[in-house]
Design goal:
Layout lengths: L2 E6 L6 H10 L4 H12 L3 E10 L2 E10 L4 E2 L2 E2 L9 H9 L5 H22 L14 H17 L3 E5 L1 E2 L1 E7 L2 E5 L2 H7 L5 E2 L6 E2 L3 H10 L2 E3 L6 H5 L6 E6 L9 E8 L1
Parallel strand pairs: 1-6, 6-12, 7-10
Antiparallel strand pairs: 1-14, 2-3, 4-5, 8-9, 8-11, 13-14
Helix pairs in contact: 1-5, 3-4, 4-5, 4-6, 4-7, 6-7
């Protein structure tokens, strides 16, 4: 039987939310998490916890860089720290995942690098990553690629992405939502929308790049419930990855695996 993976991004998407949703699809989540931890290397710690966002129950995923001090459980990073594509590839090559997973992670970062170059009028080779180049961000991307590979769906279908709206503070100061690199990725054939009642950054550059890389196709729904209505009721597995921010409604990504 062939399987299709449906990814519901009508509440947005970020790499940690996607990892949590994918991980939640497995019956033995702790065993899969241990496998990720064994392979990630690079002095990282991976944790998962059960949580609730309004009516939605799911998982929160955290990748912690042990080379940095933590404040309230969150890594404290220098605001001006940055890395380039070579640094990111070095991190990826430092893991012990399969070559297929490493190639996928590099492919996702190639999308991000091209978007950053476009947004800042630079070349890919000269792009400096800030938030998206931090080790915890790279770890989330690699883990997402590993879990998609492990679930081994024949097709991956993404909903339209709720990008949010308003302003967000990043390393470059205050910018419009979607942020420039995110907007550059979304305009490459990814249907996206926003809802007046739900503001802020709901789609990150890493989330958009994962969607762009893995999507076999997109379903261009522009509402919160339309994509959910088309999902099969007899699913093989379903997982929910939650976001940490209170957006006024349940926040997170839902992944559904079904036969076809």
């Amino acid at each position: 039987m062939k399987t299709v993976m449906y990814v519901d991004c009508t509440r947005g998407i970020a790499s940690d939310m996607f990892v949590a949703a994918l991980l939640d699809c497995f019956e033995d989540k702790e065993a899969v998490l241990r496998e990720l931890q064994l392979n990630i290397c690079n002095n990282m710690s991976l944790t998962v916890e059960c949580a609730k966002s309004y009516e939605r129950t799911g998982l929160l995923f955290t990748a912690k860089d042990n080379t940095y001090k933590s404040v309230n459980g969150i890594n404290a990073h220098c605001a001006h720290s940055h890395s380039d594509l070579t640094d990111v590839h070095s991190f990826i090559d430092g893991t012990t995942f399969s070559q297929n997973v490493k190639n996928a992670a590099k492919g996702v970062y190639d999308i991000i690098a091209q978007a950053e170059a476009e947004a800042h009028g630079a070349t890919v080779d000269s792009v400096h990553f800030h938030e998206v180049g931090q080790k915890r961000a790279v770890a989330c991307i690699v883990c997402a690629c590993a879990l998609v590979d492990k679930l081994n769906a024949d097709r991956v279908v993404f909903s339209g992405i709720n990008a949010g709206y308003g302003k967000v503070i990043c390393a470059h100061g205050e910018v419009d939502v979607p942020a420039p690199a995110t907007a550059a990725i979304l305009k490459r054939g990814i249907p996206h929308f926003y809802i007046d009642a739900v503001g802020g950054e709901l789609c990150t550059p890493t989330g958009a790049a994962l969607a762009k890389y893995f999507a076999s196709s997109f379903v261009a729904q522009t509402g919160l419930s339309e994509f959910a209505d088309m999902l099969p009721t007899a699913a093989v597995a379903r997982g929910v990855g939650l976001g940490r921010r209170d957006i006024g409604i349940a926040n997170g990504v839902t992944v559904t695996l079904a036969g076809e």
